[in-house]
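Record type: monomer structure entry
Structure origin: computed from sequence
Chain ID: A
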Amino acid sequence: MNICLLNDSFPPIIDGVANTVLNYGKILTENLDAKVVVGTPRYPDADYDNYPYKVVPYPSFNTSDIVAGYRAGNPLAMKSIRKIANFEPDIIHTHCPVSSTIMARILQNETGVPIVFTYHTKFDVDIARALGEGFLKKETIRAMVRNISACDEVWVVSEGAGDNLRSLGFEGDLRVMSNGVDFPKGRADAEKIDEISSFYNLPEGIPIFLFVGRIMKYKGLPLIIDALNILSDKGIDYRMIFVGGGADAKILQETILKYGITLEIYEENGPKKHYAGKSDKSGLIIFAGPERNRERLRAINSRADLFLFPSVYDTNGMVVREAAACGLASVLIKDSCAAEGITDRRNGFIIDETAENMAVLLEELSGNLPYLKEIGQNAMNEIYISWEDSVKAAYSRYEELHDLVLYGGFRRRRKLPSDLFLESTSMILKGTEHVFDIPRNIYGGMRENIVQLTDRSHIYTESIAEFGKELGKEIRENVGNIGNILSRKE
């Protein structure tokens, strides 16, 4: 099969969904003999030629002021859409509900194949962070849910993710398709673990706590720091390693300094910064920065004694499964998505969402490190899922959808007003690609299309608002270009 994967993040961006697309592309290509094309916003100076599948980067603009480090793609980039359409995909699988899914819908207009969408993240949290509460947040979420509803099949990575999506107004059917882990089952080589111990100066017999992910407060990181402060006040020694980058790192570091806990910061391509804490405060907190070397990250997980993941934001928590692959148990929040499948004190630890509860647990476990190894081994045996198994399940469903299309059993979802808008927009944009080379009968079709835009303006006005100011500007410019061309032709 030919599979098109679309996502708004891809290396050089490293996050959970980018990692998902990387593993889908690699395993579909190398293990399942599929042909894969990935569409993603272009990042300056990124190299897209060294993957085992085709990557089509399309024009983007910097949105770091809204979401640090990220760029937003232009989903109306018809040259890129044409490249992907020429690949003749059998399935379009989109992993982001904004630009990628708009592009998926235009691609569907070009190819006629089904769209699968996977809901990975509680986007309402990111939207609230970027736009605040109020009317704009409400309308943005409404537009996002409509975009998801336009897809033919919707997957969620956990039951909790499905509950979150329904709470936002989604009313269609959902299919739970769990993500996997690219770490092999088992601890890293002893030599690599020793290198980590030496690099971070991690002594034997002292509990090593770990967090891996974006350094954002909404992942429960203030709760970790407050719990560690309680341990420090009690004279309990520990090492806490935060691996990752994010907009809230500086704020969290300032809190640690205010508490008087010793802090070390490892900056990319820079020297280590050491801030000595108060003499009566025990413990050491390390900000290791992003770690892009997967083998080194596996060794860090293997060296740690306990993974701390008090996030109620994450819908799946792949890092919890990565930790389990290395025999590392996690501390999770009761009723969170990440806690699905976890049995307290069997293959992990579940607490109420307070720093005091975490501190009590960490104090207890700090004196019983062999017990943590036992729980970690259970986690490895019971909650681990490989990416090979996860992608194989996805590919099996791709085949079912493809067969339904071939034999006439596939029921397409009903068209939305925004479908008419996207169909008209794609026709207009295609027309502008070869303005010096368009047969006269194409002009007639374009005129008719513009008339449709005018006659149905009451429908399109709402759709244009959904797709944002930048897309509206793009459309206006292209419609203006068509008008100029038609005037000159006549």
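Annotation 1: Confidence is low (pLDDT under 50) at residues 434-464.
Annotation 2: The CA atoms of residues 60 and 73 lie 4 Å apart.
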